[in-house]
Specification:
With 139 residues, this protein is an alpha+beta fold. The chain has helices at residues 22-32, 57-70, 78-83, 88-97; strands at residues 2-11, 18-20, 37-43, 48-53, 100-106, 109-110, 117-122, 129-138. It has one domain (2-138): Sandwich (Jelly Rolls), CATH 2.60.120.
Length: 139
């Protein structure tokens, strides 16, 4: 059993931006040289999220719309009162969606479904540089 770590820095363009990380994950598993194990993908920020989705425009739009219905931008958040940065909704959305994802892999390939991609979603009110850590444990 061993471990492998890969760190990526990606730039998002705007709130609601969804970046497909699937090929980066496939590449990291390949680089690790492991055939069996687990890959943990983590975003080191509190206003972004990681999840799996069928990465097509209709679902990307549905995801943005669902987040707005569930955690609206235009209500008052205590975070706004304290910091004045207008991104309280971003922190709440991130907490509910999550900042990490674990994907098993077998025979050197992530065990993702046919229509399942690993994505990063920008939740802050502007684009940012985002650090993605892929920590792989396997043999």
């Amino acid at each position: 059993m061993g471990s492998f770590r890969k760190v990526l820095t990606l730039r998002t363009s705007a709130e609601g931006d969804i970046l497909d990380l699937t090929e980066e994950l496939v590449s990291a598993v390949r680089e690790s040289g492991f055939k069996e194990g687990l890959a943990c993908v983590f975003v080191g920020h509190s206003t972004a999220a990681l999840f799996t989705i069928e990465n097509e425009e209709g679902l990307r739009r549905d995801m943005r719309d669902a987040l707005e219905r569930s955690f609206p931008k235009d209500i008052e958040y205590e975070h706004h009162l304290r910091w004045g940065d207008g991104n309280g909704h971003s922190h709440i959305r991130s907490a509910f969606l999550g900042t990490s994802l674990t994907v098993p892999f077998h025979e050197g390939r992530p065990d993702l479904g046919t229509w399942q991609q690993v994505v990063l979603m920008e939740l802050d009110n502007r684009g940012r540089d985002r650090m993605i850590i892929m920590q792989i444990i396997g043999e």
